[in-house]
Amino acid sequence: QAQLAESGGGLVETGGSLTLSCTASGRIFDVSIMSWFRQAAGKERELVAHSLGVGRKNYADSVKGRFTISRDNARNTLYLQMNSLKPEDTGVYYCRAMYGKTEVWGQGTQVTVWGQGTQVTVSS
Questions:
Q1: Cα–Cα distance between 23 and 106 in angstroms, integer?
Q2: pLDDT tens profile 91-108
Q3: Nearest to 87 by CA among 116, 67, 65
């Protein structure tokens, strides 16, 4: 069976950028709808973006204008460019391929966005 492998996750500061990659083995990439999902701790998995082929892409409202999904069919690789990251983008990011009635999921890659903090002043 075809397999997917994600990479590129990590720890990044608020406002920073990361690029995730998902490489497919097996001859599925060209015929698949490729997608990125994410799952935050204690929450359900949610769709981030679809690549439907032929230039068609869909994004969750929460990432529009900040994230870009792209695919390199020659390299069997799906990308997710993430800019202006926010703490609420933290989670495990999964790649999914759909072809026909078959779904294939990757193992996930962790993205953690830490906040810039806030200044607290104590005076007497």
A1: 9
A2: 999 999 998 888 999 999
A3: 116
